[in-house]
Amino acid sequence: MSLIELTDICRCFGSKDNKITVLNDVSLSINQGEFVAIVGASGSGKSTLMNIIGCLDKPNSGIYKFKGKDISRLKKDELAKLRRESFGFIFQSYHLIHSLNAIENVEVPSIYAGENKTDRRQKASELLKSLGLEHRVHFYPSQLSGGQQQRVSIARALINGGQIILADEPTGALDSKSGEEVMGLLLKLCDLGHTIVLITHDAKIASHAHRIIEIKDGKILSNPKPKNELLKKELVEKTKREPTFLFEIAEAVSMAVSSLKINIFRTILTLLGIVIGVASVIAMLTVGDGAKKSVLDRISSMGTNIIMVFPGMPNSRGSSSVETLVLSDVDAINELDNVVAAMPEARKSVTLRYNTNDRVTNLNANSWAYPIVRKWDLARGVFFTKEDEINYAKVAVLGDSVANELFGSKDPIGEYVLINNIVFQVIGIMSKKGASAMGDDEDDVVFTPYSTGNLHVIGQKYLRNIRIGVEDVSKISQTEASIKELLTKKHGIEDFRVLNMGSLIESMEETQNTFTILLGSIAAISLLVGGIGVMNIMLVSVTERTKEIGIRMATGARAKNIMQQFLIEALIVSAFGGILGILFGLFISFLLSYFGMPIVYSILPAILAFSCAFFTGLIFGFLPARKAAELNPVAALAGE
Q1: Of 544, 542, 543, 562, which is closest to residue 552 (Cα–Cα)?
Q2: Domain count for the chain
Q3: What CATH code is carried by the domain that includes residue 191?
Q4: Is position 265 within any domain?
Q5: Which of 186, 215, 247, 276 has its CA 20 to 30 A from that of 565?
Q6: In this structure, are residues 144 and 132 in contact, taking their beta carbons and an 8 Å threshold?
Q7: Are residues 484 and 512 in the same domain?
Q8: d(Cα 556, Cα 79) in Å, to the nearest integer?
């Protein structure tokens, strides 16, 4: 049985209306151990015939059997396995991968055969040594002469055994001396049991072969029978094992990293888009969360157990001057269930004086229960009592800012101050509170009993507002409804507005969440742009490396190996860019916090941004990777 047997092989190119027939009913057989030369003029179809024999191309019709097996029944990956295990290619233009040195080029077929790095490195080194290149193993193709490059390609053809060596014009680009050396090597390989198929147009080169097959215009003109003594030769083949998935991934990562390092400037530009996108997401979300926390903290500082009642009709802005709320409303609300205390409030801008120091501040005429409802402790002294309210006591409690402005380091407790020229005794200092939800300084205030402040300073009959503290926050909505019902019944009309601080916080939280999502979405657009940049760069990379892809396919790479390599390149760029983007985003957030902007650091934005970057690489890297994997080996080898 013949090793290779072709029967009525036809190969056409072009469309139906413009079809070009390159091979026409070609039939031939090649036995194990033969040195066969296929000769013909340029354009006769000999290279196309070699591509079909080497399973790089498929015929349009006819039967090709290898070791009795019909090749047409094999799938794409099965053809890759056959090329990897049985064929070795020697090309006229060498077809070495320029980003790899000599020994790395030789190793390529054994990578796809699943051989570990130590074994394949040793084997490649021995092959190069046997070909006289032991001092050139780390030289790149551009550093080697034509003859040396061809020897590297011969070593590559033999690394997996090379049962059949397909040599397409192996001496065409060499000088006469190098050509003779290459032919001598091919003869030695034949003596060792390798089957040699030589493609040439040179009769002198073809004369080294045991049998010469002549082809012209796609047809066989001369096809002598093989010599019987050659049929006894047989090359011992080693059992090959399929590479594992983890091995393939590890090798793909290694190749991807090497490729990215070769094109370092382009890699940096690709990284830049991902870094900016991820950093934007991190910075935007930390700023959004910080703003949310700041606003909610300020509102929460007013108390989540608070209900505020303001004068004026519902759904109107109203005004503190609207005359609808009176002291009797406070007394009535204090009788309701779940009410800790209802407090009248009246405010007025006043001037405080101590000795020669003046301070314009806000007077808050309020209730003895104010610190309890607001959960605002005193730093020193005491707050006024219920008896002080009843007795119209002229006592005052100062906010931290006012106390510092008027008294400095002196203890204000027991001292007397003038409030709009009315004498009040200082009995307490409130603890520092900071900014309110509206951004005002809450410590810029002086508190007096409502009765005293309203009588001597404010002089208003109607209340600015009523502040109500509830006992059980879970029942705050029911308490709010009870207050509305009470006041509506008492006034005969709903001429007031009720604000539930718990509901306000929920509403603000929803608003801030929406704001954060908006910021994150805007930042995600930059990440999307970065992903498109990754895809564009990878598509350019596929185009630039078309020949490399063809070489890898010719040496046994499956479609999935090519896809893994390009997809992993995209993932490495995206993942590394994601890490750099997180660090850069955190640095930006740190700078913003340094200049006073509220920032909240959280692991979630980092995970979200990195995941987006990773999946951006996966999604946008898939198309270029698939394009590379679907390339035709013959077309890829011819690409530039």
Answers
A1: 562
A2: 3
A3: 3.40.50.300
A4: yes
A5: 276
A6: no
A7: no
A8: 8
Question: How big is the CA angle at 576 (ends 571 and 581), to the nearest 5 degrees?
Answer: 120
Contact yes or no for 55/4 (Cβ under 8 A): no
Indicate if 121 and 152 belong to the same structural domain.
yes
Spacing of C-alpha 152 from chain mean position: 40
Element containing residue 289 per DSSP (H, E) = helix 264-301
- Please report the DSSP string for 322-383 in residue order: -S---HHHHHHHTTSTTEEEEEEEEEEEEEEEETTEEEEEEEEEE-TTHHHHHT--EEEE--
Q: Is the residue at 500 inside a domain?
A: no
Specify whether 456 is located in the same domain as 575: no
Question: Same structural domain for residues 262 and 233?
Answer: no
CA separation for the pair 212, 497 (Å, rounded): 105
Tell me, yes or no, whether 217 and 284 share the same domain: no
**Digit-coded pLDDT (tens) for 315-353:** 665 555 567 888 899 889 989 998 888 889 888 999 999
Helix (H, G, I), strand (E, B) or coil at 311: strand
Q: What is 566-623 written as a DSSP string?
A: HHHHHHHHHHHHHHHHHHHHHHHHHHHHHTT------HHHHHHHHHHHHHHHHHHHHH
Q: Specify the DSSP class assigned to residue 555.
A: T
Which of 445, 466, 494 lies at the terminal end of a domain, its last residue?
494
pLDDT in tens, 433-458: 877 655 678 899 999 999 999 889 98
Residue corresponding to tokens 């012209």: 216
> Cβ of 291: how many Cβ atoms within 10 Å?
18
Q: Side-chain half-sphere of 277: how many Cα atoms within 13 Å?
A: 31
Verify that 215 and 130 share a domain, yes or no. Answer: yes
Residue 470 structure tokens: 């509830």
**524, 586: one domain:** yes
Helices 546-554 and 501-544: crossing angle, nearest 10°? 70
Of the residues 243, 261, 283, the one at which a domain ends:
243
What gap in Å lies between CA 135 and CA 552, rounded to an integer?
Answer: 25
Q: What's the mean pLDDT when you consider all of the chain?
A: 85
Taken in order 125, 126, 127, 129, the sign of the CA dihedral is positive
Distance between CA atoms of residues 176 and 207, nearest Å: 15
Dihedral of CA atoms 58, 60, 64, 66 in degrees, nearest 10, equals 10
Per-residue pLDDT tens digits for 543-575? 888 888 899 999 989 988 999 888 888 888 888
Residue 344 amino acid letter:
P
**269 and 348 both lie in a single domain:** no
Q: Which stretch of 234-238, 264-268, 285-289 has the lowest confidence by average pLDDT?
A: 234-238
Write out the E strands in 475-556: 496-500
- Residue 15's pLDDT band (boundaries 50, 70, 90)? confident
Quote the CA–CA distance of 414 and 211 in Å, as a whole number. 122
Q: Following DSSP, what letter does each residue of 134-160 receive, concatenated? A: TT-TT--GGGS-HHHHHHHHHHHHHTT
Structural domain including 571 reads 250-296+507-638
Question: Which residue pairs from 59-63 have beta carbons closer than 8 angstroms and sit at least 24 positions apart in sequence?
Answer: 59/9, 59/10, 59/11, 59/23, 60/10, 60/11, 60/12, 61/8, 61/9, 61/10, 62/6, 62/7, 62/8, 62/9, 62/10, 62/25, 62/26, 63/5, 63/6, 63/7, 63/8, 63/9
Under a CB-based contact definition with an 8 Å cutoff, are residues 25 and 59 in contact?
no
Reference 534, options 456, 414, 625; nearest CA is: 625
In a domain, 478, yes or no: yes
**What mean pLDDT is predicted for residues 119-124?**
92
pLDDT reading at 502 higher than 80? no
Q: At what angle do helices 546-554 and 76-86 cross, to 10 degrees?
A: 70
Closest to 543 (Cα-Cα) out of 637, 634, 628 = 628
Please answer whether residues 7 and 62 qualify as being in contact, where contact means their C-beta atoms are separated by less than 8 angstroms: yes
